[in-house]
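User: Predict the full complex structure for these chains.
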Amino acid sequence: MFDDRYTLAYKRYPYKKSADQDAATPVRHPVVVMGGGPIGVATALDLGRQGIPTLVLDDHEGVGMGSRAICFAKRCLEVAGRYGCGKPMVDKGVVWNIGKVFNKDDQVFEFNLLPEEGHEYPAFINMQQPYYESFQLDRFEELQKDGAPIEIRGKNRVDSVEVHDDYVTLNIMTPDGPYTIEADWLIGCDGASSPLRTMLDLDFTGKVFQDSFLIADIKMKNDDFPTERWFWFEPTHGGGASTLLHKQPDDVWRVDFQIGWDVDRTEEMKEENIRRRLDAFLGENVQYDMVWSSIYTFQCKRMDSFRHGRVFFAGDAAHQVSPFGARGANSGMQDVDNLGWKLGMVMRGEAPDSLLDTYNYERIHGADENILNSTRSTDFITPKSEMSRVLRDAVLDLSEKHEFARPMVNSGRLSVPCTYDGSPLNSADALDGPARSRPGSVCPDAPLGDDFLLNKLGDKFILLTIDADAPDMIEEAGIKVERLALSTADDKTGALRERYLGDNDKAVYLIRPDQHVAARRPSFDENQIRAAIRRAIGKE
Amino acid sequence: MTDLILTPNIDGVDDFYAELIAAHEGLSKEDSDALNARLVLVLANHVGDREVLSQALKAAEK
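Assistant: Here is the predicted structure of the two-chain assembly.
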């Protein structure tokens, strides 16, 4: 009845019979989340911190084995930081800045990402996905102890749903047999092959790429490999058509071989065959243990809509991209960041239901941007036509001697947060300020004494003033917006000026609970700010 | 005398590259080669400067 789809790395929420299973009539829950992966648990963290009862259902009892997602970008860490579990991730993760690109067997160039100073979180870290999930589950348990109304049920598999106008019925299978519950809201975070999407017979369209990649995570015995990202285009070692080497914590390296479309999976997954590729790549003298391996193919697809009445989709269930550029888990976390505050406001009666449609608008915008970027990387790594290959090879040839060609080399554009240009929640940009903090952008972090700006913003609406007058609190449409008054006099590094003022002496920003800019102006204008607040909660 | 620019000089280079690849989509090899040849001539005319064009030819040589 319960076939495990995968092996667990950590058993975290063993099955326990719930009182719901003996209830005479189905128990109603405010929010049910399908899937206990990184996106489902993050959803519970977001809603639980708002005091919204949230029940996560997972058909397994913990964190799945295998490194899988290994690259967690700044925005993802910032969101996790707001939930209270960003620090341990950064402590565990590996930060790298140097990358090397090889064409055939020759290094064509080396780059240093030179991350911008003045951010609490690094541009990204490498870390095996089970660690990421564990840190979130640690935080989940902490919040539970502090009284947050969140719960996760292992070996609770949703077998069918009935969607009604104002609630959803879920039929769940457990080791003790089936039971039924109801949910005011249902969020599907049940992964790329989302059973929920299938149950509702919803479209998932896009491109399938005809290539397979073999991942081998290896632990080096004689550890003298540097903490760098190395990428080979068409190496002659024969291990794969392209090869990526990337460091993870615990002296583990990710090796990723492009092995073609028409492969015998069972054959390729045999340890001797993986070792044959690895030995060809690393040379005979390198000693290693194999930690984990997998073959993956990928597709760039998304649902037509991420909202279907009382049902939402987030993460891989809603959109899937190629792994180049680390836009899977990272974009899923931005889904959660976007949906959490909107659902909270609508459930508390602070905002109209239509605010939830902007989740769809904004995150489809994000998904399309991610699909575009990851498709381009894929096309560069595995050119689809002869001319595409000729041009790609020309770029690689030129990049060895000429700096201009290096930005054209595309082995993955690393995930940066999406700017919601054109969102109905934005007010027109009234400040001739830096483009990076225009309405729709996520607030760039900046140092504030011993702390950082994003920590001060928190997760409520904030009126950020920089050397500008404004009331300490403004209440509009039932929403209390507190002011955060900053001054360039305290801006020792100049980061605040550079990121928020540009050539202006002062500025006023209205910032959403997900730390995206809703409006900005050169000075406080009560009518305009009140209108901007109404617009940002879907009331204008 | 202007020197050939060999440092990054295109804003949104990924967009440009995608447009270049898209221009070739569906063309035969022969048609693609012809497109490239016309593109070289169009761009050379835009550059105009004989010295820069000679430098560009050198930069493109292996």
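The mean pLDDT of chain A is 94.
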